[in-house]
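hi! just following up on the protien thing from before. the input was this:
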Amino acid sequence: MNILKQRQHKGIYTLACGLLMLLTCSTASAQKYVGGDISMLPAYEKAGATYYTHSGQSISDVITYFKEEGMNAMRVRLFVNPTKQTTNENNGTYTWVTDDNVCQNLSWVESLGKRIKDAGLKFMLDIHYSDTWADPGKQWTPAAWASLSDDDLATKVYDYTKDVLTQLKAAGAEPDFVQTGNEISYGMLWGRPGSTLYQCWPSSSNNWSRFEKLLGQATKATREVCPDAKIILHVERVSTSQQNDNKSYAALKYFYQQMATAKIDYDIIGLSYYPYFHGPLSEIEGAISYLEAAYPSKEIMIVETGYPYAWAVNGTTYNYSGTYAYSDAGQKSLTDALITMLNKHSKVTGLFWWWPEYNAKGTSLSGWYNAPLFDSRTGRATSAVSSLKNFLTSSTGIKAVKSNGVSLDGSYYNLAGQRVSKPQQGVYIHQGKKVVR
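and the predicted 3d structure came back as:
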């Protein structure tokens, strides 16, 4: 072999090795997770709920079944001192209403988290810095913390977060992901109803520095105790045009802009998407497109989603049933469409169904939820369960986007085969060829 040919072969070999390394790195960085928030599973098991596969075979362990269906991560919520109650604010006062679904104290989470880890799944911890449900409409400070000054409250957040994570590690339930707050679009730890409240609005600079100090203490403690865990900042203001004269979109943008300005330490943008509240798929895709362009170094996860298998969810504000019927088939079709859309966005690395394990069949448990992954009339898994694993394998891989060496849609794809809406510097597949930008 002459010297020229040797050099050519050496160059080709070097390029091939380089591309292989890039492909390996790209694939590793695109690790994806799919699962659900199974915070109530022990209660259903204790109550004797009966679970079956879609075809009717008995399920002995729901976590094992979900794993067999391709899921690789589960989420569990944590309350400070769960009261089994939720607040209704009325003219500056509040009353308590029984809610048996608020029961996840540290002992509960240790046990369930260990089961998740022992099953070989990743564990996402969702810390509600509250005694009860925390969401954009209520972020009540725990009763035991209510009289603390802002400085003392920041110290309490740090100490509490550090203690919780330390105990979880000791129990064999170290989280792989930590949500420092649940749906904190307008801040958290507002105070108590009837007192001075510390909401954070995009139209006002008030209270943001207080919130950011509290959040900073939560992330600091997380990094110290669980340095390998990824931190998630979770909001749910994802409607980009459909509702509220774009106020939801403004809140989404303002929140993450504030986080950037305050240099809050986190890894993942966490979003809720409920079609019956947020609107059609175009709403969440608009939010994702904005976020992946504005924050290219962050991953994005849908940490809560769901859709009915029958009947509308109570409080529904957007009726999507004309496109996706409230039926087993409709739930699956919505799930398939959501996954197809998400797999077009390389920054989206997580998809979690909320309350998939809800199943009242054969129990006297309170409450009713129409969008789980089990039909409470039969106890059988819905068809959508079998769709969720498709999130882990994008249908837009390199082989899928080429026909006779030419890309089907003219888009840019990374070496993992994922479409990139705004390619940065790097190596891509475009028009059937490897290109460098």
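The first helix runs from residue 3 to 29.
DSSP finds ten helices and 16 strands in the chain.
cheers
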